[in-house]
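Can you give me the bound-state structure? Components:
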Amino acid sequence: MKRLLDAGLLLALLAAVIAAFAYLRIDLGALTGSENLGHMGDYARRFLSPDLSAGHLGAIGKGALETLAMSAVGTLLSAVFGLLLALPASGRFGWAAANPARLLLNALRAIPELVWAALMVFAAGLGPNAGTLALALHTTGVLGRLFAEALENTPQAPAQAIRLQGGGAVLAFVYGTLPILWPQLLAYSLYRWENNIRMASVLGFVGAGGLGQMLYVHLSLFQEAQASSVIIAMLALVFAVDALSGWSRQRWVKA
Amino acid sequence: MTLRLTQAGLQHRDGSHALRGVDLSIEAGERVAIIGPSGAGKSSLLNLLGTARPPSSGRLEVLGRQPWQLSGRQRQKLRTHIGLIHQAPPLPPRQRVVTAVLAGKLGQWGLAKSLLNLLYPLDIPGARGQLAKLDLADKLFAQCQQLSGGQLQRVGIARVLYQAPELLLADEPVSAMDPVLADHTLSVLCRHAGEHGVTLVASLHTVELALAHFPRVIGLREGRIVFDRPAAEVDRGLLDALYANEQLLPPAPPHIGATAVQIPRC
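Here's the bound-state model for the whole set.
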């Protein structure tokens, strides 16, 4: 009986795949036709000669700086607000505060950066402001949730000991909880910064500034050479940030 | 009167009784040892006296006040006069020893001074002085996670000595030390208590240490006080009755290890 069910399921999957091809009218034949292959080759070849003129490189540098700044400010803002929301979300101020905070974090997280960016472009106008806000909003949701979980998993005893010798709640937190917690907070923040720098380069497609916006403009105008150098700049930026955050994790988090 | 318990009881969340009908009064400046088998309620009694938990029944009076009748703010003020030495001092693994010791005065310092102290230790000589009494001055700038269990216990003691409370409660303060060091550390505690007129209540699992250092000994078993008399009057028969059928191994002390840092990768 079980085997029959498995076979049926497999057949249904196969039928679904075939139906999907039929429905989307994907013409695999055209993809391998010699003329079309030639077109694709031409298009790809135009990317192989990136525009490295000084003027263009200057513009790329400015765009890269903008992307870097967007991701850094966005992540920093979201680390601060994420921690502020994580405190109630972890249940430290009772259930009455925990549920609204969790709801807010989930809502922020559920809306992707691109959607936030599209919304923020209307709210804050074209440019890096909108991108920064979009990253900050989404990442606040993500970091807030991660921070709240880290807070819940942190031993309470050190903070409790400070309370028992008369210290206030704030001091118990900074002396008893934060020293255990901060490596984890830093690791999460650096990780999200890596994500955000990749995201920041895409956000430009909806008009939110940075390298992405340059790429979008050049691609729209079929300036493949300029687009190609922008893509190389993006790659370099992402690799650089990966290396930087990997190095700082080694230095501060593992020790 | 520094401490007074009247028919005090303490119930765990699962309904079992940690303490039952305890009557106890301790004068200012007294030095009292609490002994008894594992699970007798020694830690519960100290937690009760240290205002870590309210009694489920009966009355508790600490330093002339009833802590659980006070407002939260007044209770915190009262707690600055109570020092609790933990068996496994709950210190953050990455905190430096100097910070952990100076944290003893957090209840007395203002917020600004305490936060500043986190950036730069404000009273290094003070911390070094307390650690030196316990033969640990060389570990001043070490991280707590680099210390052994016995060294951590001494850091916990140094913190409470730096706090300079009127009432000193110690829960198995020397359980992780070798006999010589344990003896020395208890002498330091007792000398501090004697010099400053501090009331000292310590639970100990080594009867010899209790009899050697403390004029008054209380025997606790199954949440009740079995005997409460001067150390000179505690004899073999009393101790045998106290420890009858006791399991030989004390439970391992809880330990706050370095929390593993999770690094998500994509």
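A couple of observations. Chain B has a mean pLDDT of 87. Residues 179-196 of chain B form the longest helix (18 residues).
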